[in-house]
Amino acid sequence: MQVATVNWLEHIANDLAEQGFAIEDNFLSPGEVDEILHVFDIHRENDRFKKAGIGKSDDFLVDKSIRGDYITWVDPKNAYPPVQRFLQKVEELKEYLNQTCFLGIQDYETHFTIYPEGSFYARHLDQFKNTGNRKISFICYLNQVWDHDNGGHLRLYLEDGPTDILPIAGRLACFVSSEIEHEVMVCNKSRYSLTGWMLNQKKELDFLINHA
Ligand code: OGA
Ligand code: NI
Q: Which tens digits make up the pLDDT trace of 102-159?
């Protein structure tokens, strides 16, 4: 019997092309997740997390009835080593998607995300059709102990109906930003992730000013 070996890059590219989204388990190992959670602790101790905004650019408007998460942007040049390693894998995926799917991705932006207990993010699209520059959304979950009772599912609204994805440690979810409406269901305990977008243009040079 021949078993086709499909690596993670092929798997994600195929699923994105065929269904507009992909789920990759064990994108990060348990050890890698642990190390990144330590970086969360450092940022939290330094009071770096801010209430996330909504609108065309982030931090535009803070509305708790739409989104309740707290974020801090990753500055790739000064990221801690475990975060650098995560970014390298994202970079690898970006290159692969450009080569195989001709997406023309130029850059990406990423933030650390915490949804406190009781918070959610109402149904939305990460990108208005044909405007702005977000091509592929990706979220890597970092919750080592999590089951259905904890809620916090990523609900994707697909043509065949909604599908729920549990935010378990090491799992990467990605989807076409302009096509897939989605929501984060109410979290019954704190939910951690790295959230990012692959962009079809370079991040603005005023990145640090806008995201400070
Ligand atoms: C977002 C978002 C989904 C998730 O930040 O835009 O939809 O599962 N996140 O955290
Ligand atoms: Ni979103």
A: 899 999 999 999 999 999 999 999 976 556 689 999 999 999 999 999 999 999 999 9
Q: How many angstroms does the Cα of residue 1 sit away from the middle of ligand 2?
A: 41
Residue 184 Cβ < 6 Å to ligand 1 = yes
Indicate if the alpha-carbon torsion angle 73, 79, 81, 85 is positive or negative. Answer: positive
How do residues 32-57 score in pLDDT, each as one tens digit?
999 999 999 999 999 999 998 765 55
Q: What letter would DSSP give residue 149?
A: G
Residues 6+ apart with CB under 8 A from 186: 118, 119, 120, 151, 152
Query: Which domains does the chain show, CATH number per domain?
Result: 3-210 (2.60.120.620)
Using alpha carbons, select from 110, 182, 179 the residue that is nearest to residue 139: 110
Evaluate: CB of 139 within 6 angstroms of ligand 1.
yes
